Here is the input.
Amino acid sequence: MTQPQKLRWLVAGIGDISTRRVLPAILAEPRSTLAGLVTRDPAKAASYGVPAWTDFAVALAECPADAVYVATPPFLHASQTIAALRAGKQVLCEKPMAMGYAEALTMQRAAEESGLTLGIAYYRRTYPKVARARQLIESGAIGRPVFAEATNHGWSDLAAGFRAWIADPKRAGGGPLRDIACHRIDLFNYLFGKPVRVTGQLSTLVMPVQVEDNATVLIEYENGVRGMVDVRWHSRVPRDEFRIRGTEGELELTPLNDPQLVSPQATEQIPTHVNIHYPCVEDFVSALLEGRAPVSSALTALPTEWVMEQVGGVCFSLPSR
Here is the structure.
């Protein structure tokens, strides 16, 4: 029997996430093959043994790719995604989806107009323990869910070094709200549905950066659940907490990135893939082959952009120095 042709990928951006996770995931996914790379520094592409381009538009025209993984900084997400869709390519784009809600809407509209698939790499949706938590909630294991909280704290001196762009408002669009909180907001949306009211505060207390170094977000959902997310770049005490409280008990997923899930019934160890991007790439390929939407799509990512938009201009201030 003839084997189906593999999905040919063009990857735009060879930064930290690409080298550690995205490219290894594509190279390991059995239905995928790497067809080309886009990078400002061609030397970075040499070890992959595929053609490389420095110009994204030229790469779209010359690379025989079926899909594009947009792994560039957020200020390029919308333009590169829309260009790829218009060139007839399926797209999987890194998070956050765009620099803001309006820009994200243009990406979604481009996907609809093209009839192609646009996925967003909120890979924590593919964590097996998150799927298990969703199952437990739906089965009534904690009664009616009423409150969820997620914190992620760490020390991130991003004003210098190879990831300095992540603290540049013109390239990243913000600080830990868009870098870290977006993942937790997206999970809350995945678990609880439609967000209807948002408040929050951003400030810069410690880090010498031109974006916020901490953000606190309070979200109310259509079903009455409230979710609180607190993220910080200025804590010497690392935290990765995630819990869901209901009328009859709670689910403890702390640390979010570890396999442990504690419910009223049991303590379970439910690990994800060693490469946490792999299940996201795998699901995207499966979605294309099965004619369905990926678990994390442009449509599911839009509410996350909407939530962040509500917070983005609230109580933001930079201290005088």
